[in-house]
Every structure is written in C-alpha cells, then in structure tokens.
Design a protein that fits this description.
single chain, 287 residues, alpha+beta, Tumour Suppressor Smad4, six-stranded antiparallel beta sheet, 18% helix, 39% strand
Amino acid sequence: MIFNNIAVIPNEKKDPFFEHTKNLIGYLLNIKDKNIFINEIYKQKINNCVVKYTNEEDLYKSCDLLIVLGGDGTILRIAAKASRLGKPVIGLNLGRLGFLSAVEPHEINLFDNLFSGDFKIEERMMIDIEIIKDSGVIQVGSALNDAVITHGAMSRLLELDLFRDGAKITHYRADGVIIATPTGSTAYSMSAGGPIIDPDIECFCVTPICPHSLVNRSLLFSPGSVLEILNKNINMDIYLTIDGQINIKLDENDIVRIKKSEFAAKLISIKKHGFFDVVRAKISEKF
C-alpha cells in the first residue's frame, strides 16, 4: 500500500500551540510527492501554504492514511469514522497511556517505515450499538473499545438483564456492565476485573462493575452473537456510554442491543513488538 495523500488530525487540547502538528507536517513535506491534508478550521493556526485545507468530509475521502495526534480517546473517535471508508489510522501519542498510538513524539522518524513498506495493518473488531424503545429503534453508533451502562450520581445498584440471541443469560445487580471488544479489553473492562484478550480473537466480553454477588466473572461470547441488555430500573438516571465519547440516558425497559459491526478499524503498526509487548510496556512492568 502506498500513502501519497495523508490527512493530519491535530488535537488542540493536547497540542495547544500546534508545535507537534507543525513538526509532523514539516517532516512529511520533506518526503517527495506527498500531499498533506488538514481540516480547514486549522488553516490560520497552521499557516502553511503547501498544506491542502478541506472540510472534514472531504478530508476523509481524499486521504490514503490518517495520522492522529492525541491520546487513545482521539484515536477511538477518528478510527470509528475512518473504518466506514476503509482508511487506516496511526497515532502520534500526546496522551498519558497511549495504548493505541504507535509512535511517541521523540520517535517521529519511525514514520519512515510508512513509506518503505515496513509496517502492518491490524484490523480490529468493532461493535454496533442501538437502543430499542417503545417508540422504535435508535441507531447509536459504533465503538472500537466498549459500550458501558452505568448509573449517574446515585450510588444504587442497577438491575439489568443480559440476553444472547433472545435467550436470557443472567441478571445483574451491580454498578453497571461493560461490553468490550478485544481492543477494549485493556481499558475499563480490565480495570473492572475483565480478562486481557488478544485482538486477533474476535469476541464480546461482558464484565459487571462491582456486582453484588459472590461470583464476579466476565462472560465471553462469539462474534456472531447479538447481545441485549434490558434496563429494569425505575426512577433512576441510567446512561449508555460509547467509547467514552457518546453519553445517552436510558429509560425504563429500554434495551441496548450490541452486535459485531460490518466495519473494522484499521490500525497501523510500525514497530517490531507485538500486542503483549505493548501491554507489558504500557500497563505493567511485570506481566
């Protein structure tokens, strides 16, 4: 795969003076026959006449590759959009953990691998989420990491039923429940006691949050499963959160339906280490 048209996605919160963004652009412009695209909203702040400025929709359509500056949250947001157009994504980490970002700011020369062919594209399973209400079905969106159902400010246990393909699996009395992809298994799901899952394995991981039970176990389901969670709570503020980006209030008897997305996120890896090398380096010194 040849990358001639490259979209650079700045993050003004992580890079308020656009120092890292301008450094990356300068590096890319030194490579022959490469077109650099940036959202037109940053034109005055980037102030580079060689860069091609366009609206967000055309930005995604025009590029062969998206380089995202920021942390994991930024990668999640951009990868979900890019997946629908089959565009690969790579991150320059400006966050804390940067588990999904392939390159640190001091490693910018590693981007040479993108143009020498020394890289691989990892396809990561995503999930589609919808809410079934009495009035109809609401399409919520897609997630690369997880869908989380939890309460608001009140510290009361939630009453939730879990179904798979229409058959009831279990009832939860807990602070909430996490439905994670293998990519999301190293995020909130892991913090709640869920397993770390090799992203080459496609599955759903359902983990209760602080369950009121003597048994605290995650459940794994095949990627062909359709999972449904019934909200049985009355007069409580219950929320569905998608990849930490989208937050939707649920009503009593709402059903959250989750299934494997037809789209996959394409994340570029340009380092020689594997998934568990990243886990060991980013999360634990002794894994």
